Amino acid sequence: MGLKINFLGTGTSQGIPIIGSTDPVCLSVNSRDKRLRSSVWIQWDDISFVIDCGPDFRYQMLRSGCSHIDALLITHEHADHTAGLDDIRPYVFKQGAMPIYSLQRVLDNLATRYAYIFSDVDKYPGAPSVTTRQVDPSKPFTINSKTITPIIVEHYGLDVLGYRFGTFAYITDMARISEEEKQKLVGLEVLVINALRIAPHPSHLHLEAAIAFAQEVGAKQTYFTHISHKLGFHDEVSKSLPKNIHLAYDTLTLTL
Questions:
Q1: Which is nearest to 205 in space by CA: 241, 231, 179?
Q2: 142: which residues sit within 8 A by CB, 6+ positions away?
Q3: Do the beta carbons of residue 249 and residue 7 sit within 8 Å?
């Protein structure tokens, strides 16, 4: 099968539409302007990975038809990337404890917020179980024979993990990246990177910066994610982009 990328969500922390908003993008009837919180499901041969489990996780899993997850990879601890953690229960009940990979700081944060999941003391029988795996950002790690390269980016002073799977890399919530980490992106077929809005932002790439970064990395194709309503209408923005740079959208699938 090779590598198949399923975009479960491509929106920023509030999603699109925003609750109660009368912004024209939020009122759009175009399905590509409706964005759940950012997440992807990666099928690599017979191995299944999901990156992040935000508040829309349950619906994303139902919509995608994902019936098995070998590992959950977390980029960072913010709620739009982790608030759906309890909904791993159906997978745990079928498969056993869910392996979760991230930085130790993130695992510690989740263990505090979801103590009933991470603790084995007087565990409620209906609670999900996890096994934690600390990611060392200085070296690749292996899951079920597949090698994954972690990439550290900066998000308003917070280290956030991106991940490279073969010739595909996924990065979200990035404002800056070091030259050393940038070298991990050489030779990509597909890069996914965040592009929050038109105007500059202190903790995310905005559209101009995301385009410049994509062109510098030089992947054959780049897709933008973690998009807010302030980027504009999907179809209009798409027409303005260089030919090998695209806006991702919910339910988009790519095969490498």
A1: 231
A2: 148
A3: yes
pLDDT at 195: 98
Burial class (CB in 10 A: 0-12, 13-18, 19+), 121: exposed
Long-range contacts of 27-32 (CB under 8 A, 24+ apart): 28/233, 30/233, 30/234, 30/235, 31/249, 31/250, 32/234, 32/235, 32/247, 32/249, 32/250
Residues paired with residue 14 on neighbouring β-strands, in sequence order = none
Look at the chain and count its residues: 256
Q: Rounded to whole angstroms, how far apart are CA atoms 36 and 13?
A: 9
Q: Which of 71, 4, 62, 25 is nearest to 233 (CA)?
A: 25
Let me know: does 197 contact 237? Beta carbons within 8 Å: no
Specify the CATH architecture of the domain 3-255.
4-Layer Sandwich (3.60)
Write down the pLDDT at residue 124. 87
Task: Give the Cα separation of 151 and 75 in Å (integer).
Answer: 10
> Are 53 and 81 a contacting pair, CB within 8 Å?
yes
pLDDT bin (cut points 50, 70, 90) of residue 120 is: confident
Provide the mean pLDDT of the chain.
97
Query: Residue 94 — very low, low, confident or very high, per pLDDT cuts 50/70/90?
Result: very high
Contacts of 106 (CB under 8 A, 6+ apart): 74, 76, 77, 161
HSE at residue 69, side-chain half, CA atoms within 13 A, is 28
